[in-house]
Amino acid sequence: MNLKTPFPDPVFARRDAFDKLRGRTRYTVDEACQGHLQAYLLRADVASGEILRLDVSAARKMPGVRAVVTASDAPHRFGIGVADQRLFATGRVRYKGEPLAAIAADTLEQAKAAALAVDVVIRPLPAVFDMAGALASGAPLVHPDWATHEVLLETRGAGRGGNLAWESQVRRGDVDAAFSRPDVTIVESAFRVGRQIHMQLEPRAAIASYADGRLHLIASTQAPWTVKNVTARALGLSPARVRVTAPAVGGGFGAKYGCTIEPYAAALALACGKSVALVPSRAEEMLSCPCRENADILIRSAVTRDGRIAGREAVVLMDCGAYGGEQIYLTTMTAHTLGSSYRLEAVRLVSRAVYTNTAPNGAFRACNGVYNIFALESHTDEICQAIGMDPVEFRRRNVLGDGDLGSTGQVFQGDVLGPMLEKMSQMRSKGATLPSDDGRLYGRATTVGTWFVFVGPSAATVNLNPDGSATLVTAGVEIGQGTMMQSLPQIVAAELGLSPCDVVVHQADTDAAGFDVGVGGGRTTVSLGAAAVAACTEIRQKLLALAARLLQAPASELSLSQGRIDRVGHPGTGMTLASLAQEAMQITGPISGSGAFTRPGVAAMDGCAAGHFLEAVDIPVFAVHDCDVAVDPATGQVEVLRYRVVQDVGRALNPSAIHGQIQGGVVQGLGYALHEEVTLAEDGAFRQAGFGSYRIPLAQDVVPVEIELHEGAPSIGPWGAKGAGEVPILNVGAAIACAVSRAIGVRVQELPLTPPHVLALLQGRKPALQLHHPQDWPARPGTNPPHSTAAVSVAG
Amino acid sequence: MIGQLWINGEWCRHDADPAAPLHRVLRENLGLTGSKDVCGEGFCGACLVQLDGAPIAACLVPVALAEGAQIVTIEGLDQDPVAQSLMAAMEAEDAVQCGMCFPGMVMTLTHLLKTCPTTDREKVKRALAGNICRCTGYERIVSAACRAAKDLVAADAQKVVA
């Protein structure tokens, strides 16, 4: 798309703000609280054990109880890369909090009382709570039957075995030779991060009803089609018998990208024929939250004196918890986050998802990227220190440019990060000098990061209505990001020459809209937008053909603009779209269009990637972040003084909306970097159970982010757009860690940088991080994991 | 047992347990779902209502203790000129994202604008210590409160002139 063609309406306010401010918007939790049976999940109170007895007969007789379902009601396995999970613990408990039974009663209190009447006996088994323990020789297996699990996604050369849920590898060039060169400095770094909890204000929630042989789920979800398909699989139904609708969602950030609680409500509704609402309490939501995974990262590089990266290798361990879920898929991302941003002459990466007896992790905004960019950028600063080069200069020399190869050998197009770094220096040079004489320690850092749009299949239908308005039908969900309120109606309006006000956006309904992967991965504007453009193209063709006939002019001389169709250069000579749409009633019938989109499939280099679900990225997205911090040496308190972002957006369809995403995403990243901390108790459960113990940013913690949008980078997105909501959190941990490290003159290896953590660093009380996988060097696939790793070649 | 509450200028009867938290009675018994049930522990501010003029976390108030008080929920602030000005400023600043925290934000900030008409960013941020937003990063909410303060001062000045 030529950026010279102006996008018609870049200023377009969101239409849901008025009602949301007044409390009128009906979220799933608002529908759930009246007129439905209430569901409660009985959860295991041990992390690992054998279920000796689970007798629900007394619970069924408790007052108000309408249905009790257990493992036998949902025996089918599901998962993302590997079908390793069932709805209920079956024979064996794998994490504390794993559901054992679901109960529906007239009130929530009755359902909870019935849960206490379930007779459960579980014999504790040895458990493993950290990845070191899980990968140690002789560790108890979370899934002793791992070899029998069905592999659901085809890849070449993945590794699996024992507590290793999945292993993917990247190899390009001769890494061993690079590390043996006499002219290189070898820098090795280790990093560790904990989990991050979404803390979206609306908990996950679902209401299930069963009528005319079909299930209807109203769900607070980011991915209606995933809910439909997983629910059907878990309950052994045909997906055609499950309908999912999604009202406004009160925040997701990835917590609602998978199908987690919906099938329980569905199973209960099937059992009793009544509508059943399941809304976890905040404490339940937290203990079962599909968190951003904790991770251990070991990375080393061979760098020449003039700052070229001759070789790089890394091992990334990602904790998937008791079931593989997203993390199996996310091993793929390491190639495109940790393995990206910089030109590498040779590279070898191993990315492992590891089973532990903890709650399953999931997706969270810029999955895998946030900690890998923290590791990569901190490592980059350590390289600069080792070779004595200015960190910004090192980045200028090494960032990916036009024609450079990514880790899997894909060819990047356009110089993007270089010019963005230049914009950042200009932005910095305009800033006022900060006072720095108050006894605090000051530091600043500029970091780069690479993310991508997770494209994937989307469908859209557009109806041109007889009044000249248009209706867009997709399975996209408004989770707060604004896509369904702003960019999508804007795109349809631009394509059809309408005002965005005249575009109605249908709420997600799998009975009305075609397949969609879901709202996540920065894909909504791009994938649903591209599908909508395709649908509008069909409408345009129909309109132009009809108008050519009615106006007696060749279609090539007609244009759609401002709700009219006119001869090019002769406004007012034609007719309104409304009158054309009405004419169509008599001639062709109502006008509609359908469109589809999927990933175009950018090529990787053959043989570079094994075990990957995405070998190359279709739309890379780049970000440059810069921050100034002050550290109080007496308390270890970090204050963020200024924060700047230059973000690659391709084309800004709605700059105000993007700025809003950047401010919000950066602040979420500040929480991750500075004070959001999940710790495990001795029994493997999270110690944090609410907003009191899990500290997310408050108004007084934040600064206004200074923002520049970088337009013009290549993108196949509609009107040249890229996803803008996911990436703002990407570099934040990195920027804060690098700035704090410079302020205090001590290496930062772990997040979050809480005051006690920073104080320990300042006082030299924090021992250097010892990761448990040094035997992985060199990072050869399949050499380390115990339990006879099987290198499986699923695709044959 | 039937309880009776004075909410948004009218009597509302309910049969909830007297110890039930007020926000659940509002939502589950009276259909007033504008106050949100987010943490249930008084941390997040999503369930704020006015009790005799001051914003208070409804999740911390047993419903029986709210009897006899004048309760105003977000639904009842619709006609309040200060709240209207604030909500218009929120729209003008493009502050809203998922929206779950906003009824509580409007409760807190309407009270601030009434009790401290010459507010500034620091005062607004301090006032928001008990309101959590996970989407927006707060700054636009703060800008909207400051904008509303200016608008209200200007409107008052006009009234004086008139």
TrEMBL record, chain A:
Transmembrane segments: none annotated. Residues 785-796 have a biased composition (Polar residues). Residues 22-126 form the Aldehyde oxidase/xanthine dehydrogenase a/b hammerhead domain. Residues 772-796 are annotated as: Disordered. Pfam families: Ald_Xan_dh_C, MoCoBD_1, MoCoBD_2. Coiled coil: none annotated. InterPro entries: Ald_Oxase/Xan_DH_a/b, Ald_Oxase/Xan_DH_a/b_sf, Ald_Oxase/xanthine_DH-like, AldOxase/xan_DH_MoCoBD1, AldOxase/xan_DH_MoCoBD2, AldOxase/xan_DH_Mopterin-bd_sf. GO terms for molecular function: iron ion binding; oxidoreductase activity. This is Xanthine dehydrogenase family protein molybdopterin-binding subunit. The lineage of its organism: Bacteria, Pseudomonadati, Pseudomonadota, Alphaproteobacteria, Rhodobacterales.
TrEMBL record, chain B:
One of its GO terms (molecular function) is metal ion binding. The keyword Lipid metabolism does not apply. Keywords: 2Fe-2S, Iron, Iron-sulfur, Metal-binding, Oxidoreductase. InterPro entries: 2Fe-2S-bd, 2Fe-2S-bd_dom_sf, 2Fe-2S_ferredoxin-like_sf, 2Fe-2S_ferredoxin-type, 2Fe2S_fd_BS, Beta-grasp_dom_sf, Diverse_Oxidoreductases. It comes from Fertoeibacter niger. Pfam families: Fer2, Fer2_2. Residues 8-53 form the 2Fe-2S ferredoxin-type domain. This is (2Fe-2S)-binding protein. Residues 73-145 form the [2Fe-2S]-binding domain. The keyword Iron applies. It comes from the Bacteria.
